[in-house]
UniProtKB/TrEMBL annotation:
GO terms for molecular function: DNA binding. It comes from Prototheca wickerhamii. Pfam families: YbaB_DNA_bd (PF02575). Keywords: DNA-binding. The keyword ATP-binding does not apply. InterPro entries: YbaB-like_sf, YbaB/EbfC. This is Nucleoid-associated protein.
Length: 116
């Protein structure tokens, strides 16, 4: 009876060690991914490519470039072009983040919950 309890305790201890190792790996890989995303930049352009918006991997705006041609279209149209470029930059950033998260999940042996 005592030997059975000792074996159970040893198995439980081993399981706890493996869980701690897995948690550390997830923390480390997640921190690495967050740093990588923060250093990345994603661009978006207006449909006529007269406005460019760049965001980082955390979807924070980094820069906006507007051509003279865009300025000459007037404030209302310029606003539309900036919005188009910002939306595209945001979508590109989100798409990259999702791809990197999916890769992280696969590397960690997690199931593909996104269905992609």
């Amino acid at each position: 009876m005592q030997a059975g309890k000792e074996a159970q305790n040893a198995m439980l201890g081993s399981l706890m060690d493996r869980l701690k190792d897995a948690q550390k790996m997830v923390r480390d890989e997640t921190a690495k991914l967050q740093a990588e995303l923060a250093e990345s930049q994603y661009e978006g352009f207006s449909e006529d490519e007269t406005v460019r918006v760049a965001v980082d991997g955390n979807q924070r705006p980094v820069s906006v470039d507007i051509t003279e041609a865009a300025y000459s279209l007037g404030p209302e149209r310029l606003g539309e072009l900036v919005l188009q470029a910002a939306r595209e930059a945001h979508a590109n950033s989100i798409g990259a983040m999702q791809g990197k998260m999916q890769t992280l999940a696969q590397n960690l042996g997690l199931p593909n919950v996104g269905g992609q």
